[in-house]
Amino acid sequence: MSAEPDTIYIVDDEPGMRKALCRLLRAEGFDARAFASPREFLAGYDAQTIACLLLDVAMPELDGMEFQQILAQRGLRIPIVFLTAHGDIPMSVRAVKAGATDFLTKPVNDADLLRAVRAALKTAARLAAEQWAHKALATRHATLTPREKEVMALVVKGMLNKQIAAHFGTGEQNIKIHRSRVMAKMGVLSLADLVRAAERLEGGNSAGV
Amino acid sequence: MNPTTVIWSAAAASCVTLAMVHLLSWCWNRESKASLWFAGTALSVALLACIESAMMRAQEPAGFLALHRWGHVAFFVIILCIVGFVQSYYRTGRWWLVWSLIGLRLLILVLAFVPGPTFNFREITAMEPVVFLGETVMTPRGTPTPWEFLGNASGILLLAFVIDAAVRLQRRDDSGEKRRTPVMAVGVVLFILSCTVNGVLIHQGKAQVPYFITLSFLFVIAAMKFELSRDMLHAARLAAEVRENAESMRLAAGAGELALWRWDIPRDRIWVSPGGRELYGIPSEQAIGIQSVLDTLHEDDRETVSELITRAFAGSGAFQAVYRVKTSREVPRWISARGKTEFAPNGEPVRMRGVSVDITSRILAEQDAARHRDELAHLSRVTTLNELSGSLAHEIYQPLAIILSNAQAAQRLLARTPPDLDEVREILVDIVDEDLRAGQVIERLRSLFKRGQTKTTPVFLNEIVDEAVALAHHNLAARGVTTKVSMPSGLPQVMGDRIQLQQVLLNLLLNAADAMSLQAPETRHIHLSTARSGDSVRLTVRDEGPGLPDDVEKIFQPFNTSKPGGLGLGLAISRSIVAAHGGRIWAENPPARGAVFHIEIPATNLEAA
C-alpha cells in the first residue's frame, strides 16, 4: 500500500466500542477515525481518501441500513463493513444484498476484523482506480469533435466504413480519416479496445461497489 | 261534694302525686335538677290550691287576709321553681332577668307581709257570698292598692324571661337541645293571661269571683310535665338502642371471630369475652395478665406489640396492632386488635378496653392474591424479556466485544518494540470497567428472570429509569427510537420492588416504541421524566406516536391489545403492580401528538441526600 496510512471510519454509538476499535486498528497501523453517529460521520468524511467504513447496524435516529441507502443516494461509494450484535441474521442478509462488503458479528475477532477491513480497503482502492480510469477516458472523449463522436458511436456498433459513409452521405475516405483521429484521441490501438472504452464510458458509475 | 272542693282538691292531689314521682326520679338521678324544680313547683301549686280552697270558705276579712299573705309565699316559691326549671332545663335564660324577677317577687312578698294593708288590698270591708260553679263561695270586697302594677310587671318579666330563653334555645346550633321545643313558653303565656284576668277581676272589683290562680298554674305544670315526659320517652328509646347494641356485640363476640377485652392495668388483670380465650388459646380457668397474652403471640411479634403498648401509654392511649397468635396448626392465627387507654388524673394508665378480631382468612386471601400477582407479573416479565431478547443479548455481548477488541489491541501493542505500556495500562482499566458492567447486566437479567416474591425496599425512581432504559437501549436503538430523559436530582425514595417497577417501565417503553413503528425514524422519540408530586414521586413517559383511543381507561383492561400476538396483559399487570405499591398509573392524550403515561408512587419519609 501507499506510505499514507489507509483511513478507516468507525461509526458506533457506544463510546467503549469506538475506543477499543480505534486502538486495535491504530495498533495495526491504520488511520482510525471514530464518530458517534452517521450525522457526525457525514460532516467529517473526506471523499477523496481511500477509506472504508465500520458501521454499527443498530443506532438511534438512523439505523445502518437506512444510512447505507443515504450514502448510495449521495453517490458516496465507500465500502462498508457492518458490525452487528450477535445473531441478527435477517439484517445481515439485507445488508449484504444492499452491497455491504462484509458483515461481522460482535464480539469480533481481530483476525476477522482485519481481514474484512483489508478486503474493504482493496475494494476502495479498486473503486478509486476505476473511477480514475473512467475519468481519464471521459477527458479523452471530451476532446472529440461532434462528428467524430457520431462516427465513434457507429463504429463501436460494428458498422463498416462504407455503411457509415452512406449514413452521413459522404465519401468513405472521409470516414477513414475521422476514424483514425478517434482512435488516436481515445488512445486505443485496436477496434476491440475502442469498443471496451465506449462500454466503460457508457457504463458510467455502474461498476459494483 | 261541692264542685270547687272537688276541682281544687283534685288539682292539689295530682300536683302532689306528680311532685312525688319527680322527687323520686331526682333521688335516683341527682343530675336531673329539672325534676327537683318541677317537684318544687308542683308541691307549691298543691299548697296554693289548699290556701285558695280555704279562702273561698273564709267568713271574716281577717282570716282571708292571713290566708292571702301565705298565698303570696306559695306564689313566690312557684315562680322561683319555674325559673329554676327553665335555667336547669333550657340553660338559656338571662341571669339579669332571673335576678330582677326574684327581686321583684321578693319585694311583693315583703309588701304582702307589712302590717296594715296587704299587697293587693288597702282594706277589705266585707266578705260577700257569691255563686261560683253552682256553689256559694266567699269573695272579698275592698279597695285595691296602687301596687297592683308590680304584680303585672312581675308577670311580664316572667313572660319575657321564658320567651327569651325559648328563642335563644331555638337559635342555639345544637340539635340535641333543639329537641326541647318551648312548650314551656306557651304554658307560661297561658298562665300569665289567665292569672292577670283573675287578679284584675278580683282586685279591681270588676266581678265577684274567687281566686283560681291554682288552675292557671296547671297550664305551667302541664307544660313542664310535657317536657319532662318527652325526655323520659327519649331516654327509654336510647336505653332500648343500647340494649340492642349490646346484644349485637354479644352475638358478634360469640361468633368466635371477635373478642372484647378489658385490661385492669394496675392489677394486671385482663377480662375477655368468652370467644376471646378461644381466639388466643387461653384455657378458661386461667387468670389472664398481659404476659400470658404476650406468651401466646408469635415470637417475632411479641416485641412489636409490647412496643406498641408502651407507645399507647406514652401517647394518646390509642392502641392498634396486627399480630400472629401461635396455634396448634401450622398456620398462625392473625389478629387485629384495637384498644383505648383510660388514664388516672395523675396520668397513670388505669384501664385499656379493646376488641380483637380474627383476620386470618383475610390475610390468607391477601397472601394468595399477592402470590397470584407475583406469578402473573413474572409471566408478563418473561414475555417482555422475550420481546427484548435481541436487546438483552446485545447488552451482554457489547461489553464482551469491547473487552475482546481491547485485549487484542493490547496484545499488538505489547508485541511492538518498544511496547506502548501507557496505552496498555489504559486498556486494562477499560477492560476491568467493561467486565464489571457485563457482570451487572447479567445480575440484572438474572433477577428479572427470577420468579420471586415481591421485595419492597426504598428505591430511587431515577435509578429505575436509568436501568430500564439501559436494558431496552439496544431494542429501542435498533428501531430508531431515541429516548430523552429529564430527571431532577434530590427526589425522595419510594418503597418498591425494583424488578417490578423496572418491568412496568420496560413495558411502557416497548409500548411507546411499538406505537411509533410506522412513522419516520427521526420522529420516534420517547420522553421520560420524574418529578415530585405532593407526597409522591411521579414518573412520566411520553411518546410521539398516534396517541391512545378515546376511551383511555380501556387500555388497562386485561386482554386488550392492539399488537398482533400480544396478550394484552402488560398494562393490566402494570396497574396491579403500581396499585400494590400504593400508587396509581394512568394515561392521557396530551394536546400535542402522542400518548402520556403517569405513575405516581408515595414517597418514603426519607429525604434524598
Would you mind describing this structure in some detail?
The complex is a heterodimer of chains A (209) and B (609). With 209 residues, chain A is α/β, with parallel strands linked by helices. Chain A has nine helices and five strands, in the order βαβαβαβαβααααα. In chain A, 57% of the residues lie in helices and 12% in strands. In chain A, strands 2-1-3-4-5 form a five-stranded parallel beta sheet, sandwiched between helices. Residues 205-209 of chain A have low confidence and may be disordered. Chain B has 17 helices and 14 strands. Helix content of chain B is 57%, strand content 17%. Chain B has three domains: 3-238, Up-down Bundle (Rhopdopsin 7-helix transmembrane proteins), CATH 1.20.1070; 255-358, Beta-Lactamase; 368-602, Histidine kinase-like ATPase, C-terminal domain (Heat Shock Protein 90). The longest helix of chain B is centred in the middle third of the chain and has 42 residues, at 213-254. At the A-B interface, α1 of A face α13, α14 and α15 of B.
Total count of helical runs of at least 4 residues of chain B: 17
Average pLDDT of chain B, rounded to a whole number, is 84
Structural class of chain A: alpha/beta
Number of strands of chain B: 14
Major sheet: arrangement of strands of chain B: 4-3-7-6-5
Unreliable residue runs of chain B: none
The structural class of chain B is alpha+beta
Average pLDDT number of chain A: 82
What gross morphology of chain B would you assign? elongated
Question: What keywords describe this structure?
Answer:
heterodimer, A: 209 residues, Rossmann fold, 5-stranded parallel sheet, 5 strands, elongated, B: 609 residues, Rhopdopsin 7-helix transmembrane proteins, Beta-Lactamase, Heat Shock Protein 90, 5-stranded antiparallel sheet, 5-stranded mixed sheet, 17 helices, 57% helix
Question: Topology of this protein?
Answer:
The complex is a heterodimer of chains A (209) and B (609).
Chain A: E1 7-11, H1 15-27, E2 31-35, H2 38-44, E3 51-56, H3 64-73, E4 80-84, H4 89-97, E5 102-105, H5 110-142, H6 146-156, H7 161-168, H8 172-186, H9 191-203
Parallel strand pairs in A: 1-2, 1-3, 3-4, 4-5
Helix pairs in contact in A: 6-8, 6-9, 7-8
Chain B: H1 3-28, H2 33-56, H3 61-89, H4 95-113, E1 121-132, E2 135-144, H5 148-171, H6 175-178, H7 183-203, H8 213-254, E3 258-264, E4 269-272, H9 274-280, H10 290-296, H11 299-314, E5 318-325, E6 333-343, E7 349-358, H12 360-387, H13 389-415, H14 421-449, E8 457-459, H15 461-478, E9 482-486, E10 494-496, H16 498-515, E11 525-533, E12 536-543, H17 570-580, E13 584-588, E14 596-602
